[in-house]
Design goal:
The chain has 156 residues and is mostly helical. The chain has one domain. Helix content is 76%, strand content 0%. It has 7 helices and no strands. Helix 1 runs antiparallel to helix 3, helix 3 packs antiparallel against helix 5 and helix 5 packs antiparallel against helix 6. It starts with a helix and ends in a 7-residue tail after the last helix.
């Protein structure tokens, strides 16, 4: 049996959600493994550790349970019975890169908020770019399709 486009997108979205949780747990476990870290850590460091676990977990839950709807929204032009083409994969990849960057930016914004607004600007820019990638994934896919065939003869 051949996998269709929507099911492949669902698997990719759920794989990203598993990665987010595993990465959050890995980051925080390394910090918590330092002897006396939790007792000696100030409030900002505790917020950083908590955000490294809670933020990815919450986003992963949303991704996991809304994977089918996200896949359909992410790939509206894809026929669910056809094998995914390169434009569909470019659209899905662009969306997932944007999603990963948004998750990274949100986590950093939560962790760095107590340190002042000047440290937030690069992460706000990354968040804006990631939202642009997620919302513009179909446009980027169409641009890719146009660039791929630019200059080629369409005569049969």
């Amino acid at each position: 049996m051949r996998a269709n486009t929507t099911s492949i997108a669902v698997v990719l979205i759920r794989a990203v959600s598993i990665y987010l949780v595993a990465n959050g747990l890995s980051t925080s476990s390394r910090l918590l493994a330092i002897p006396g870290f939790w007792e000696e850590a100030d409030t900002e460091n505790k917020i950083m550790v908590i955000s490294a676990v809670v933020t990815p977990f919450l986003v992963a839950l949303v991704l996991w349970f809304s994977a089918k709807k996200l896949a359909i929204w992410m790939l509206p032009d894809a026929n669910s019975t056809q094998v995914p083409g390169d434009r569909v994969l470019v659209s899905a990849g662009t969306f997932l890169i944007g999603l990963f960057w948004a998750m990274t930016a949100l986590q950093a914004l939560i962790a760095l908020y107590p340190y002042g607004y000047s440290k937030l600007y690069p992460w706000l820019i990354l968040l804006a770019v990631s939202i642009g990638l997620m919302l513009g994934s179909n446009f980027i896919s169409r641009c890719y399709g146009w660039l791929r065939t630019a200059g080629l003869s369409h005569n049969k």
